[in-house]
Amino acid sequence: MSQTPPQVGVGIVGFGFIGKVHAFGYHNLRLFYDPPPALPRLVGVCTSRPESAEKAREVGGFEFGTTRFEDLLERDDIHVIDVATPNDLHRDQVIAALEAGKHVYCDKPLAVTLDEARDMVAAADARPDLAHGMALQMRFIPATLRARQLVQDGFLGRVYHFRASYLHAGYTDPARPMTWRVGPTGGCLADLGSHVIDLMRYLLGEYAEVRGTLERWVDERPSATEPGVMVPVEVDDYSCLQARMQSGALGFIEASRFATGSLDDAGFEIYGERGALRWRMMDPNFLEAFDASAPGGDYGGMQGFTRIATVQQYPKPSVLPSPKLPVGWTRFHMHCIYDFLSGLAKQTPGTATLHDGAAVQAVDDAVRRSHQSGAWEDVPRV
């Protein structure tokens, strides 16, 4: 007889865009996985204003809404705190949740500074009985899961170099009002760069050192709340870095909010002694692989990049949608939540934890130091 999955009460703090995405994942988990690792129940939601809390309760199907974060911590029927707030709030909320005996699922980036990230990891390590996860959903795309499998199987052999990027065009208009994403603790490196920094670490291992540049093209933007008032922008619109991995592989990573014409264009190219891999978010259903051992010959023989149809090929117990159907962005988040809840239920670490978020923060720290020094900077251990 199969064991009944545990009931898990969830409280979400923050119900903007990403809070809604996480709620979608919890609501629909049992439809997509049979059996599910746990049976999540959306109990409470916390936002900054009473009217938004009530709307979040209604829209998200929560049992109650509140403006007091403590209300989530005090509920015995809330077992998981999902932190979906801006990153300058993460440290205090994550630590408070862990100290209250709650499992934690946190959006990226983990923190604002490396010291904050270390504080959060220390709090998690002090509670080994509690699960913790990060919304690093690029790890959970069938194409990137297959890429990792190929790398680990030795398909590439020694990796020589790679390129990775995450390109948006959302802030090219200087008249776009201020948001927290371009506030003092935002910036392109933290917001977009964190995703590809983590993805390349997931695929290729630890970073050794980096040399980076941060660029800003719009120095002030209209206030979102005070008509006619301009607010200074203090963070980067674009970031790029050279990376040397502990394996010796060299890479180039860039993130931009000024990539005119781009939508949600992330991707990578990896070149090794035996082959190569490449993938783009805007064509997410296919991983391209080049096998250097394929025979050459007239007109190219059998050499060339092969498009592997990874589409929605998640392993069992995934049952919905069909594995042959095209994959989509919210599906990546759902599998990330599935991985977190699987670890919670099995009492084992998931694939993406606070430690992984802190490792990204360490690269972020080194890039910022390099921007000031102009030199290669070691990536600190966490």
Overview in brief:
The protein has 382 residues and is of the alpha/beta class.
Describe the protein's topology.
Layout: E1 7-13, H1 17-32, E2 39-46, H2 50-60, E3 64-66, H3 69-73, E4 80-83, H4 90-99, E5 103-107, H5 114-125, E6 132-135, H6 142-152, E7 159-167, H7 188-204, E8 207-215, E9 220-222, E10 230-232, E11 238-245, E12 250-256, E13 265-272, E14 275-280, E15 286-291, E16 305-309, H8 329-346, H9 354-373, E17 377-378
Parallel strand pairs: 1-2, 1-4, 2-3, 4-5, 5-6, 7-12
Antiparallel strand pairs: 7-13, 8-11, 8-17, 9-10, 11-12, 13-14, 14-15, 15-16
Helix pairs in contact: 1-8, 4-5, 5-9, 6-7, 7-9
Description of the molecule:
The chain has helices spanning 17-32, 50-60, 69-73, 90-99, 114-125, 142-152, 188-204, 329-346, 354-373; strands at 7-13, 39-46, 64-66, 80-83, 103-107, 132-135, 159-167, 207-215, 220-222, 230-232, 238-245, 250-256, 265-272, 275-280, 286-291, 305-309, 377-378. The strands form three sheets. Strands 16-15-14-13-7-12-11-8-17 form a nine-stranded mixed beta sheet. A six-stranded parallel beta sheet has the order 3-2-1-4-5-6, sandwiched between helices. It is built from nine helices and 17 strands. It folds into two domains: 7-138, NAD(P)-binding Rossmann-like Domain (Rossmann fold); 141-328 and 358-377, 2-Layer Sandwich (Dihydrodipicolinate Reductase, domain 2). Helix 2 (50-60) links the parallel strand 2 and strand 3 (64-66). With 382 residues, it is an alpha/beta fold. The radius of gyration is 21 Å and the shape is globular. The chain starts with 6 loop residues before the first strand and ends with a strand.
